[in-house]
Amino acid sequence: MAETEEAIDKETFSGIIHCAAKCNVNDVTSDPNIAYLVNVESTNLLAQIAKRKNIHFTFISTNYVFDGQKGAPYNTDDPTNPINDYGKQKAEAELKVLASNPSAAILRISLQYGRHGRRFLWDVPTFVPQIWEYGNFLVRKLIFTL
Predict the structure, then answer these.
(1) What per-residue confidence (pLDDT) applies to 21?
(2) Which single residue of 49, 64, 107, 144 could bond 87 by disulfide (Cβ 3.0 to 4.6 Å)?
(3) What is the CATH number of the domain that holds 126?
(4) d(CA 88, CA 67)
(5) Other CB atoms within 10 Å distance of the CB of residue 100
(6) What is the tally of structural domains in the chain?
(7) Is the pTM of this model over 0.90?
């Protein structure tokens, strides 16, 4: 924890967008301890650091927190009901983020991100400035439409 906080102290940040995740469902099932450290513990750690340093925190979550049975688009206040370990970890991370940093934003997306998956990470700069400009209203709209 100290090393992460020291690294953040070396720069000035107006926001942290936490995109890292162990998102391959098979990897999460085969190595749940490592996945939990990445998906839940590191997320909570960053949310706490951001809160202490007054840095806006955005957590990239997933639609896997839902079971897909609603039959209509999900809203931000719909109850979660994950059906696999990945979804369960992301749902737990969401709760921990909001408990430790209530002003954090959570984006539930259906795209995978990272170097080896879809290229969502490269699309982040196209909508992040709008999040800061319009606050929670746009975040909720993005959650609904992505």
Answers:
(1) 84
(2) 64
(3) 3.40.50.720
(4) 11
(5) 19
(6) 1
(7) no
